[in-house]
Specification:
The chain has about 220 residues and is an alpha+beta fold. The strands form 3 sheets. The protein has a 7-stranded antiparallel sheet with strand order 1-2-11-8-13-6-3, covered by helices on one side. It has a 4-stranded antiparallel sheet with strand order 7-12-9-10, with no helix packed on it. The protein has a two-stranded antiparallel ribbon with strand order 4-5. The longest helix has 14 residues. The N and C termini lie far apart (about 50 Å). The protein has one domain: Jelly Rolls (Sandwich). The N terminus is likely disordered. A hairpin with a 2-residue loop joins strand 4 and strand 5. Helices cover about 15% and strands about 30% of the residues. The chain binds succinic acid and fe (ii) ion.
Length: about 220
């Protein structure tokens, strides 16, 4: 520990609690995993999440094909992602409350913008944040994010809580997938030529997180319109 007024010693610099630069891993030409990137903001993110969920509680949506999604969903920002018998869409109104979605908390916006910037997409102004909650056993099948009108902007995906195995595929459904383990605080960004790559989440394994319990929360920031 270094005390106020004393210079840090070499030992201090290598102490376990010394701040580490965030590690980055490249998983595609314009796709990055930013390890622990959300952690510096976590004390602001969790209360902001609670306040969004108080206004727009999690719900299980039913796909146009009649299948109930295993992840529970909510949204904040100008547009929320919804399912209906007619298909997937972005809506400015939460169909469950009849009200506009909660505003995107400033700290969510900051995180999305900083992550996009770090991954080479400066100036990202997301207008939609989908919030997914996975309990053990929940999964997300391989899909493309293609309900947006603005593919020139990336997808910024934040993981909190218990770990997940993220699947990152190619531009065709049958392309090989990479398995990317994601942990509390990790952020994945994909855009440019990678923007329409298939991705999904394998069934979540039983685990418990000290702050979030037996769940994984994912924020997916996008520019919808
Ligand atoms: C999604 O693709 O909507 C969610 C991905 C994730 O939960 O990591
Ligand atoms: Fe997605």
């Amino acid at each position: 520990m270094h005390r106020k007024g004393t210079l840090p010693t070499t030992l201090d610099l290598f102490a376990d609690d010394a701040p580490q630069p965030p590690a980055t891993e490249r998983i595609g030409p314009r796709s990055w995993v930013l390890r622990s990137f959300a952690l510096p903001l976590i004390d602001r993110l969790l209360p902001a999440l609670d306040s969004v969920l108080a206004q727009a509680p999690f719900r299980h949506m039913v796909t146009p094909g009649g299948h109930t999604m295993s992840a529970a969903l909510s949204s904040c920002g100008s547009f929320g992602w919804i399912t209906s018998p007619r298909g997937y869409a972005y809506s400015s109104i939460d169909p469950q409350t009849g009200q506009p979605w909660p505003a995107m908390p400033e700290v969510f916006f900051e995180l999305a913008q900083q992550a996009a910037d770090a991954a080479g997409f400066p100036g990202f102004v997301p207008d939609a944040c989908l919030i997914n909650r996975y309990i053990p056993g929940a999964k997300m099948s391989l899909h493309q994010d293609k309900d947006e009108q603005a593919y020139e902007w990336p997808v910024v995906s934040v993981s909190l809580g218990i770990p997940a195995m993220f699947l990152f595929g190619g531009l065709a459904r049958n392309d090989a997938t990479q398995r990317v383990p994601l942990f509390h605080g990790d952020v994945v960004v994909w855009g440019g030529e990678d923007r329409l790559r298939f991705h999904g989440v394998m069934p979540i394994k039983q685990a418990e997180h000290p702050q979030l319990g037996e769940q994984r929360i994912n924020f997916t920031f996008r520019k919808a319109r």
